[in-house]
Amino acid sequence: MTTSTAIGIPRTHFVSDTAVLTRRSLTHIARSFDTIVTTAVTPIAMMLLFVYVFGGAISAGTGPYVNYLLPGILLITVASGISYTAFRLFQDMQGGIVERFRSMPIARSAALWAHVLTSLVANLISIALVIGVALLMGFRSGAGVRAWLGVAGILVLFTLALTWVAVIPGLTASSVAGASAFSYPLIFLPFISSAFVPTATMPGPVRWFAEYQPVTSIVNTLRALLAQQSVGADVWVALAWCVGILIAAFVAAVAIYRRKAA
Amino acid sequence: MISVSGLEKSFGRLHVLRGVDFEVGRGSIFALLGSNGAGKTTVVKILSTLLDADAGQASVAGFDVRTQAARVRESLSLTGQFAAVDEVLSGRENLVLIARLRHLANPRRVADELLERFGLTDAAGRKVAGYSGGMRRRLDIAMSLIGNPPVVSLDEPTTGLDPEARREVWQAVRQLAAQGTTVLLTTQYLDEAEQLADRIAILHEGRIIQNGTLAELKQLLPPAKVEYVEKQPTLEDVFLTLVGSTEQS
């Protein structure tokens, strides 16, 4: 794709610039593979804890509890994974390398897109690790290719939405701690949702919150797809949340990036 | 190559630049001298299209920084105040990265040539995180030269470096100018300007208060008195002799 500005000439190569910079940050994660493993460790520990310690006392329908639990665990994986995206972006902003890229004749948003695409790859690897452990723990799904594609699509959309959210602290934070702290509430959001227990058991106001926050509709959609059930209206609510968060965070992130330039 | 006139810039109520004018000729080293906070970096950022000026004109290689920003970014390469290198990558990978972003045909060859020229060939495969301050700076300057931009701007290139590393950087800057690159150098070190620059401009309270060659600036003061002073080695001479430093070729 060739973009052009109003005046001058302007051969910026958005796609090739983004590809070069994405390769750079993929090299970063390949050289600190521990960040991907750490991302997966906490959700895996939670999964072990809930299945083998609390699981016996939780009644969440028929079938193994790990089947019920996995969708929420996957969302927790993404929520903890994106804090590394904010961290990497923050490091770049501090180091002055973003300034170097901006002063070069390259597509200006390429630096942000590279981080977003890298985040997507890193999170998908973490998700694959978590699903692998879940399979060892007895997770089974009879879902067909189309259902799995649906699961993958929603996870990709969810990851993109949260990644653009993560870009905001990555650009604005003044310390490393600040850049990654924002993800803690996101990690705990699934606890007040249908991720671990059915919302019907919760007291009134909590239940109200749980049923109307984004995680519940996304978890219910993923669960229905994996269990070969009808997704009902949940899928539309889930998609609306993901797309809404994605657009809002994207617009805010790009505006902040532009302002940081000026 | 660089032309600046009536440049003004404020940050909130802080009036940093109050009408800056200067010209830099092709292939020369121009030093912008000023104390901390004088606005040197602001001038550099405007010239490298990172900041918009409030008023005035600035052009690089004949292109206006406001209306032909893309052209300016192709003509001027910025080396900022802090070595903007990627610590996780090796020296060679850093150079290849920039060569790819400049869409050069043979990034690896460009990288190898620059590694050679800046004496970094031995360290090329090591992660930059393990480089010394002087090596980082040399890598940083090498990265700025990829694609042969006609103008290179060095913003306080030796701040925070030890004496040996400073000399390495000075050597690199001299080489640049010798090959025809126009260099805009900002510094707060008087000896650095004295050592390197063809012309020196003093930026003070948002204006250029003097602009000339070293000889011209010296003439502003009363003629030199002849005094006989025993030549004592400076601490720098002692230090460099003790650590056995020789200027890098």
Automatic annotation (TrEMBL), chain A:
Domain ABC transmembrane type-2: 34-260
Classification via PROSITE patterns: ABC_TM2 (PS51012)
InterPro entries assigned: ABC2_TM, ABC2_TM_bact-type, ABC_2_transport, Nod_factor_ABC_transporter
TM spans (from-to): 33-54, 66-90, 111-139, 145-167, 179-197, 235-257
Domain of life: Bacteria
Keywords per UniProt: Antibiotic resistance, Cell membrane, Membrane, Transmembrane, Transmembrane helix, Transport
Membrane-topology descriptor: Multi-pass membrane protein
Parts forming coiled coils: none
Location(s), subcellular: Cell membrane; Membrane
Pfam families referenced in this protein's UniProt entry, alphabetically: ABC2_membrane (PF01061)
Similarity annotation: Belongs to the ABC-2 integral membrane protein family.
Name of the protein in its database record: Transport permease protein
Organism field: Gryllotalpicola koreensis
This protein's encoding gene: lieB
From TrEMBL, chain B:
Coiled coil: none
Annotated keywords: Antibiotic resistance, ATP-binding, Nucleotide-binding, Transport
Keyword Nucleotide-binding: yes
Subcellular location: Cell membrane
Domain ABC transporter: 2-230
InterPro entries given in the database record: AAA+_ATPase, ABC_transporter-like_ATP-bd, ABC_transporter-like_CS, ABC_transporter_ATP-binding, P-loop_NTPase
Membrane topology: Peripheral membrane protein
GO molecular function: ATP binding
ATP-binding as UniProt keyword: yes
Classification via SMART domains: AAA
Family per record: Belongs to the ABC transporter superfamily.
Name the UniProt record assigns to this protein: ABC transporter ATP-binding protein
Organism: Gryllotalpicola koreensis
